[in-house]
Amino acid sequence: MIERINRLVAEVESLKAASLVEVEEIRLKYLSKKGLVSVLFDDFKSVPADTKREVGLLLNDLKNKAHQKIDELKSGFDQDETASLAKLDLTRPAENLQPGSRHPLSIVRKQIIDIFGRIGFTVADGPEIEDDWHNFSALNFTPDHPARDMQDTFFIATNPDILLRTHTSSVQIRTMETTKPPIRMIFPGRVFRNEAISARAHCIFHQVEGLYIDKNVSFADLKQTLMYFAKEMFGESTKIRLRPSYFPFTEPSGEMDVSCNICGGVGCNICKYTGWVEILGCGMVDPNALENCGIDSQTYTGFAFGMGIERITMLKYQIKDLRLFFENDVRFLKQFTGAF
Ligand code: PHE
Q1: Is CATH 3.40.309.10 the classification given to domain 104-333?
Q2: 301-329: per-residue pLDDT in tens?
Q3: pLDDT digits (tens, 9 = 90+) for 214-256
Q4: Ligand 1: which atom is nearest the Cα of residue 169?
Q5: Nearest-CA residue for atom 9 of ligand 1
Q6: Quick one: which atom of ligand 1 is closest to the CA of 150?
Q7: H or E element at residue 129
Q8: How far is CA 229 from CA 4, 107, 183, 310, in A?
Q9: Which pTM was predicted?
Q10: What phi, psi does 48 have (nearest 5°)?
Q11: How far apart are the first and last CA of the chain?
Q12: Domain locations in the chain?
């Protein structure tokens, strides 16, 4: 018995925790009803009378040390985190549970929202089931425009006007229809395209699009905003590259690459030996799109951009197969939370 106690004392004294969740796991392991320390207390009943006092003192000492250690580990973490753990609201969506219990896509979505939040972008939401106007027509895709082919769409069979949104640009339209500029917002959300499921594509994925409309907004503002984002997301040494592209609702349009953060731009299989990886589409909002929403294109200009959260997450965590995000395999998920 004394030997077991001494062993546990040594064990408790060397405990370390990387998060509050781990501290809680430690508490459960040692001090819960069936915990290692509590079990010793049960065994104490059968300790012979002549050593009871000695063993009792050692046991109490062990228990105090375990409590002390846990308090000490806890105090190593942010007070806010401790407070939010205490106020844990189990009715909230899992992504809001603090800390841990987070899907990698939720982690990265939150990072994106925080990064843009720091420069004044607020968040708006919209419906996943859309009409043609908000997903296509208002965005300058005329009915037979070939650009519609870029986004293979799920339509509701009985009504070709109703579809699953293919991008969150639909929320940009809804926002512009109802909000007077200046508008500085981002639009995270789930989108749907009729793609064959593979390591690189899925019929469901997630985007964050952004919109900034005001007087005198220029391409330089777009570039600076995106450069800030890239450096915040992938590190200070990240470089960006803008290539000309085409979207019906922006003119001029571009696609942005970031220098590959995996090989540092030297070339690897992630960046296909180019040193660059594409992360988003962007451009100056086409005057037609502004006018379609009742915004005077003589007075206002703006930029927009859109990125896939899966892609950013894959780059950040070097995940090679997009399907992993949707399979709910805990062996994958727990690598991001440590809390299952
Ligand atoms: N909506 C585009 C897409 O999903 C991305 C984009 C948004 C491009 C805003 C330019 C401006 O592909």
Answers
A1: no
A2: 999 999 999 999 999 888 989 999 999 88
A3: 999 999 999 999 999 999 999 999 999 999 999 999 999 999 9
A4: 1
A5: 305
A6: 12
A7: strand 129-131
A8: 54, 16, 18, 16
A9: 0.71
A10: -60, 150
A11: 33
A12: 2-86, 104-333
